[in-house]
């Protein structure tokens, strides 16, 4: 059956008038609706209109999904705006996984009590507002949201809080989610004892981890490609429990690890921390930053090392093997250290100055 018998004389105006006569519209033709409630599917609906607005409406909980199993996943690139109506009580796992064309602020309505794992992962939202009703946010709900600059929590929320757009538990002892789109330098509050997710923050250049931190979860700092320095204020890395791959894809050959005075050896031999090529030991962040101007080259080296100390007074230069046995401690007022007698291999050079100690990995060719 054909609705219309098009002729060359039918123009656009006539076509739309005919649709209106039948009670149809272009939007109605293109709109898609899915039943996504649980336990009753029809209790909650997702509707995508012709303008790219996805509306979640109804009463009750959303279903959970696997990363690519949401019914709108095949058309996710058509979603530009997300609206969640009051009445919905949960946001399902992976509901908006990889919906990177969704932009703007996300407002979670009152009555929502939980946000599932990866619920908004890799979406394009720029900020999120969480009401007091949300009592459960599963880890990684906002994972790899590269444009997300702030997660703001209602001050009356019983389980969560935010500070400068960073998501914490209510007592601010756990850093739950650092927004991936934030930039610059960040000092983690002294109240924090556990870091869950500080990953894929491409624009962060410097992080300070307070001495209060005793655990860092799996992949917590993963893929922070822009990190230039990490300052860890705990003098004993063995007191910090690390999950696996905490610093996966962090540029450990260029990112400086700054540690308290007297703790360089402990960090150089500690799992994962020892992956950092440049470990700087000093009494303050300012002095550590200044110590970065001290240059040691070439690296790899052959017969001698050159040390450009600028305004620093160098008290001692020690070259150690990988077990920290000192094998060379020669130093004069000049800029070079003769290392021609060293066999090929990897060493540590430790330079004590009037403003702290610098330790670097070096390679003898």
Describe the structure.
The chain has three domains: 31-161, Leucine-rich repeat, LRR (right-handed beta-alpha superhelix) (Alpha-Beta Horseshoe), CATH 3.80.10; 183-291, Alpha-Beta Horseshoe (Leucine-rich repeat, LRR (right-handed beta-alpha superhelix)), CATH 3.80.10; 293-365, Macroglobulin (MG2) domain (Immunoglobulin-like), CATH 2.60.40.1930. Helix content is 8%, strand content 33%. It has four helices and 30 strands. The protein has helices spanning 12-21, 26-30, 264-269, 285-291, and strands at 32-35, 37-38, 44-48, 53-58, 61-62, 81-84, 90-91, 105-107, 114-115, 127-130, 136-137, 150-153, 160-163, 166-169, 174-177, 184-187, 194-195, 204-209, 215-216, 229-232, 241-242, 256-260, 278-282, 295-297, 304-308, 314-320, 326-328, 336-338, 345-353, 356-364. The strands form seven sheets. Strands 16-18-20-22-23-30-29-26-27 form a nine-stranded mixed β-sheet.
